[in-house]
Write a structure and sequence with these properties.
A: 2 domains, 4-stranded parallel beta sheet, two-stranded parallel ribbon
């Protein structure tokens, strides 16, 4: 963020957006999501998580379309002295797309064949999103702005990473993650880039398990911010690449 | 209880696009969103779907591809809530998450992480300020009232 000269502050007093608990307790979800919106006030609220993005957008959509829901939200928030507010909810992809447009990066990701993994909740839902749900392109556009060789389509590009299933049926979650990695290997990618921390955890941090259980060949996975940072010339440690469990050293090789 | 999803099962004409796009249907043949919608429309006995509804991956493909804006994933989410309200069993991980949420305001606990060089790291060791998130005062009270069904 600093390398792009943008001014982003932590939302004071934020909490979980409620997304994972929507099925178990939808009122708790609506309260948590609306509370975060209200704390942000009328400014711009940047979400760096797909789950949060969907959750906040859905809560806003619901409050706009249902008087009953809006009334309940207002009452619940007022106990804490908060007023319901509607910030502009921004997804990391649309935010960085605007920030990077027309800008030159310090160290282009030349020669790297990268593919985009959007993650379900950044593109699909009952509301108008920032990109076309069935054929989005903004994340690929960002990778192109970073100087990478972008693979605009590969089998399973818009598929689910399986993370939600970890709470219910881990083996099925692993099957989905493995299929995603296998397809990106078949497409000859040097790496996958995702804006979602949930997908990132599923696709990056579980590769050892995937290799053991499903025989999946490893594939470097980067969080979107890490890919941008690399192109801005920030070193691996500064980007937390020492926390990636996928073989990101392949990407770093020849760049140091 | 007001409606919290955007489902419209009454609009379904059983075209099956939800099922042909469904992530889980490809792995579990007996999991079919169009059938779930159809059963609900025609009055499925309470409890009959209590187990299968937790298999949804929430990939939202059914929501996106439905020509009638039925939003099957939202219907499934509402069915999950109805099952929980009836006291039916739900995945343990969510119970644990509720507990952590009520204590910390977050869905997951902050934990130390070991990096590639086997160094154990946390926010303090990396020179990061503590998070401002938390479950304090009235916020905590409201959460526990909602969880207890008093609101």
């Amino acid at each position: 963020m600093k390398s792009l000269g943008t001014n982003v502050r932590e939302l004071e007093g934020w909490s979980c957006c409620g997304h994972p608990l929507k099925g178990v307790n939808p009122k708790l979800w609506l309260y948590l999501a609306s509370r975060n919106l209200s704390l942000a006030g009328e400014g711009r609220l940047l979400t760096v998580c797909n789950g949060c993005y969907l959750s906040l957008k859905e809560a806003q959509h619901l409050t706009r379309s249902s008087g009953e829901a809006a009334e309940w939200v207002r009452r619940a928030l007022s106990i804490e002295g908060l007023e319901y507010r509607e910030p502009e909810i921004l997804h990391a992809v649309e935010f960085f797309y605007d920030e990077l447009k027309g800008r030159e990066v310090a160290r282009p990701l030349k020669g790297l064949r990268l593919g985009a993994h959007y993650g379900c909740h950044s593109i699909r839902g009952s509301f108008e999103g920032f990109d076309k749900a069935t054929n989005p392109g903004m994340l690929e556009d960002i990778l192109a702005m970073l100087g990478a060789e972008v693979v605009r389509d590969y089998p399973g590009r818009l598929d689910c990473c399986g993370a939600t299933l970890m709470a219910v049926d881990p083996d099925m979650g692993f099957t989905l993650a493995s299929s995603k990695i296998a397809q990106s290997n078949e497409a000859g990618l040097d790496g996958l880039v995702t804006p979602c921390p949930y997908c990132y955890e599923m696709l990056d941090s579980r590769q050892e398990t995937l290799a053991e259980l499903k025989g999946t060949r490893p594939m470097p996975v980067l969080l979107l911010q890490q890919a941008i940072g690399l192109a801005q010339g920030i070193d691996g440690r500064g980007l937390g690449l020492n926390f990636n469990m996928s073989p990101v050293d392949r990407i770093l090789k020849g760049r140091e | 209880m007001f409606k919290t999803g955007f489902e419209r099962p009454e609009k379904c004409f059983q075209c099956g696009r939800c099922t042909s796009s469904c992530t889980i249907s490809k792995l579990m043949g007996d999991y079919r969103p169009n059938r779930i919608v159809g059963l609900v429309r025609h009055g499925v006995p309470e409890g009959m779907l209590d187990k299968i509804i937790w298999n949804c991956a929430r990939c939202m493909k059914c929501v996106e591809y439905c020509p009638q804006k039925v939003a099957p994933a939202d219907l499934i989410s509402s069915l999950q809530h109805r099952a929980v309200s009836r006291g039916s069993k739900f995945p343990e991980a969510y119970g644990e998450m509720m507990k952590i949420l009520s204590e910390t305001g977050m869905a997951f606990r902050q934990v130390d992480v070991t990096d590639r060089d086997f160094e154990v790291c946390n926010r303090t060791s990396m020179g990061l300020p503590p998070l401002t998130a938390g479950a304090k005062g009235k916020f905590r009270e409201i959460m526990s009232k909602i969880t207890a069904g008093e609101m």
